[in-house]
Design brief:
Blueprint: H1 2-10, H2 37-49, H3 60-65, H4 72-79, H5 89-95, H6 111-122, H7 146-152, H8 154-157, H9 159-178, H10 181-212, H11 218-237, H12 242-268
Length: 275
């Protein structure tokens, strides 16, 4: 059925989309006689995908993957291989049932709509009349500030204190049990490395948060990051007071773990690892 419908649509010069809502949640696309394959495909994608992939969507992860499905030029540039539906990520994600996701309120595309999308891509993934064509060549990069690069280095720095501080705590505890001075040296070495990396993680994170704008849970996440850096510094300063040193390392480890958890919720959504 899909192959036959695809062939019919692909060779029909004035092919149009006429859809009817399959569930109460589906938006209705008005049947038009002046839509070609490109605009019909765009309208179908809006109907089926704009709930998550649009500037108004609350799904941050979906918007990062595709900010606006109505922007057909960008959608085609990033997810379509013109002339080859099987090599087009957009087509096989929908064909395999990955999009829309199973928990979506929107019903998946019909066979007719899949055939329409297949025909549009097979025909070269052309743009609707008056729409901008996809940019096929790299444009000149825009100049960016140094703070932008510092902000984007945040994922690099966060892993160092999250690993080094718990290792320092473990080494210090083992040093008390085994009475091996080498483990004390290891603990101090790890803390000494954790302090600048925690400071860089907090600084880059603060700048990155400013770029992202207001986000739920962001204030808690970045203050926990600052707390991790402060606790690790205090631990190093009181290193000769063994009990206080261990206490501050434990605090830094716990606060750092909490900062990582809430950072993950911001990046991947609250349902990725719910508490």
């Amino acid at each position: 059925m899909l192959t036959i419908a695809t062939m019919l649509l692909a060779f029909a010069p004035g092919a149009t989309l006429s859809t009817h809502p399959t569930t109460a949640q589906d938006s209705t696309v008005e049947a038009r006689t002046d839509w070609g394959l490109a605009e019909s495909s765009r309208q179908m994608l809006i109907q089926r995908c704009a709930q998550c992939h649009s500037p108004e969507s609350q799904d941050r992860k979906a918007r990062r993957a595709l900010a606006d499905v109505a922007d057909l030029a960008t959608t085609a540039e990033e997810f379509v291989t013109a002339g080859d539906p099987d090599a087009s990520e957009l087509y096989y994600l929908i064909l395999d049932g990955d999009m829309p996701p199973e928990d979506s309120d929107v019903a998946p595309p019909t066979e007719q709509e899949l055939a329409l999308l297949h025909a549009w891509i097979s025909g070269g993934a052309t743009m609707p009349t008056g729409a901008p064509a996809p940019v096929l060549q790299d444009s000149e990069p825009e100049s960016v500030s140094a703070s932008h690069y510092v902000a984007r280095s945040h994922p690099l720095w966060i892993h160092f204190p999250l690993a080094l501080i718990p290792v320092a705590l473990l080494a210090s505890l083992l040093a008390r049990v085994t009475r091996k001075s080498a483990l004390d040296t290891t603990a101090l070495f790890c803390v000494a490395l954790a302090i600048p990396s925690a400071a860089l993680a907090a600084t880059s994170g603060w700048l990155h948060a400013a770029e992202m704008g207001p986000t739920e849970g962001m204030d808690l996440h970045r203050w926990l990051g600052v707390g991790t850096a402060v606790a690790s510094l205090l631990a190093f300063l009181v290193r000769k007071r063994r009990a206080l040193f261990l206490l501050l390392l434990a605090v830094a480890s716990g606060v750092g773990a909490a900062a990582g958890h809430f950072g993950g919720r911001i990046t991947y959504g609250p349902d990725f690892f719910p508490w």
